[in-house]
């Protein structure tokens, strides 16, 4: 595993309680960042490239799940979300009748920990948890909130914010809806992040800036679309414009930190909640195989960059496998004194990022939502999943295999027959890990338990999903 230092100063003594900004994209493909030399050729992200150049690009960064909700639950707790039965997005089926759906209320979150440590905490953008007010971020440790609690919303929801269902509407920390506004939603989140910095610049703050871009519905501003008029595929053109807009707003945030002379006091982490939705539409995952919703690299391997000027040397390209709960552990170790009862399962990456530690200890990373699972160590990966996009057509096709992933990032060479001993070792590690997990509490799969409904829109989606499954079995 290589550690590249293109440039940068030697690490200095870290700030005792740095500001921490965690930026989370939604469905951003591995190839949808300009700093990735093997990524998509049409993408323009100068400000994400700026973070990578001023810090470290983690080439083997992984989301905690192949869909949004469970991945975010892990980030919020610093634990594998399967430990508390959060295997799938909140959905119409439950393990037992009447079982609550969402991150268990008895569990604390990263925002609770930072609040207790004296930080001002804020969440701007998408949250994705239970419907009841108890589950919304303003009741989970975030003192400031500006956003919504659902998987996706209209990017022009602002001009009808007083009319839509509550989970699609933009709210503040008092639980009230934001008055109608005209801004494109990504721009609104960007401007709100600047206001948060201005209000909290004189004390340590933790900001989770959770963009819903480039998750569908596919909507971009006319100005941004015009910049990419040369892209013939309309869906791809919209996706690229959406990503470009998110990047512009991240640039405004970086400019604000520089203007306030806060860069050396601020740890910045950027990643995505799962892989891209797949070509030819939406986000792109080059050079990976697969897409969101699967445990192929395209479903779980995501752009991951970290900057802390004066502490993390600039220009690094680091290829040790890391995941979302490592990011959570790193943030908490930087700003607090983690306690044993938090049960953090991630690794503090700071010694690795500063160069003090050249390689992480040997370990396994795991993914599991019952019907899709995977396990990898430094060199090997075993997965079992279904790939729905086959040569441009939507089909549910089983896909499994053993890959020397450190050399075969595109998962092209199944080595399960050549190396049965590695396959057996990875499977045994996975089964031992799975034995300590709780069965799914809720979700969309028929294996979970009784159907109790959820929301009108989601029930319609669920019925279409059942129809597709029935047709697939014919």
UniProtKB/TrEMBL annotation:
Keywords: Calcium, Hydrolase, Metal-binding. It comes from the Bacteria. The keyword Hydrolase applies. Residues 18-334 form the Sulfatase N-terminal domain. Pfam families: Sulfatase. Transmembrane segments: none annotated. PANTHER family: ARYLSULFATASE FAMILY MEMBER, ENDO-4-O-SULFATASE. Belongs to the sulfatase family. This is Sulfatase N-terminal domain-containing protein. It comes from Ferrimonas pelagia.
